[in-house]
Amino acid sequence: MNLVIFGPPGAGKGTQSKFIVNKYNLYQLSTGDLLRSEIKNKTELGTKISSIINSGDLVSDEIVGNLIEKFISNDNFKNKIIFDGYPRTLTQANNLDNLLKKYNQKIDLVLKLSVSLATVKKRILERRTQENRADDNEELAIKRFNTYEKSSKPLIDYYAQSNLLKVVNGEASIVEINTEISGLIDSMKGWLWMIKQYKYAGNLKSIILWLE
Ligand code: AMP
Question: What's the gap in Å between 58 CA and the centre of ligand 1?
C-alpha cells in the first residue's frame, strides 16, 4: 500500500505521517525533510536550494523527482511508502505515476488535510518555537499557503478524477484526525483484500474449469 498525504504547511502532514508509519508499518518519504537534510549537510544540492526553500518557493520538479526515485527503486520500501509533501504540482503527480509504474507499484489512497490560513499561521508560529525552521514565520507561512493553494488545485482535481482522493478535516484534534485517517485506510485495505479474493476466486474457477 502506497499513500500520498498533502495539505498546506502546518496542516499536520508530518505528525499524521508518523502516526500512519507506526500503525501500518510504512516508510515516510518527506521531500521537505530530504531537502532540509541536504541543506544541513551542506551538500552541493543543499547550497543550491537553501535560498529557494527559505523564500517559501518550490524547488524544481527535476530535483525532487531525483530524490524520490532513490526511495521508490529500493525494494525495502516497495509498496510501503507514505509520500509526505510530494507531489506538489501536476508535473510531479505525473512523474510519480510514471516512476511507480516503472517499479511495478501504484498509489492506493490520497489524503488531503484541509485547514484554514488562520490555523496554518497559528500552528506555524507554535512549530517555530519547537523546531526552529528557517521557513516558519508568519510572512512565509502566508506565502507558502498561497503557493500551496495555487499549485494543489490541479492536483486535487487529478486525484479526485481517479477516485483516490479523501479529504480529511485538518482542523480537528490530532487524535480525531488519527481516527478518521485509520478508518479511511482500513476501509481501503478492506477493498484491496476483497479485490484480491475476487481475483483468486476467478483464478480458482478457471483452474477448476480447466481440470473438468
Ligand atoms: P515541507 O516540509 O513539506 O513543508 O516543505 C518545505 C519546503 O521544501 C517547501 O516550502 C518547498 O520549498 C520545498 N519542498 C518540499 N517538497 C517539495 C516538492 N514536492 N516540490 C517542490 N518543493 C518542495
Answer: 6
Q: Is the pLDDT of residue 134 over 80?
A: no
Ligand 1 proximity of 36 Cβ (cutoff 6 Å): no
CA-nearest residue, atom 1 of ligand 1: 32
Cα atoms found within 13 Å of the Cα of residue 194, Cβ hemisphere only: 6
CA distance 176 to 154: 28
Task: Name the residue range of residue 33's domain.
Answer: 3-211
What CATH number does the domain containing 113 carry? 3.40.50.300
Query: Mind listing the pLDDT tens digit for each residue in 37-87?
Result: 999 999 999 999 999 998 888 999 999 999 999 999 999 999 999 999 999
Q: Convert 111-174 into a string of H (helix), E (strand) and C (coil).
A: EEEECCHHHHHHHHHHHHHHHCCCCCCHHHHHHHHHHHHHHHHHHHHHHHHCCCEEEEECCCCH
The residue whose CB lies within 8 Å of the most ligand 1 atoms, and thus the one to mutate among 50, 53, 61, is 53
Number of domains in the chain: 1
Evaluate: CB of 156 within 6 angstroms of ligand 1.
Answer: no
Residue-level pLDDT at 130: 81
Set of cell numbers at residue 198:
475476487
| Distance from C-alpha of 111 to C-alpha of 184, rounded to nearest angstrom | 9
Backbone angles phi, psi at 71, to 5 degrees: -75, -50
Helices 31-40 and 44-54: crossing angle, nearest 10°?
120
What is the model's pTM?
Answer: 0.87
Asked whether residue 203 carries a pLDDT value surpassing 90, the answer given is no
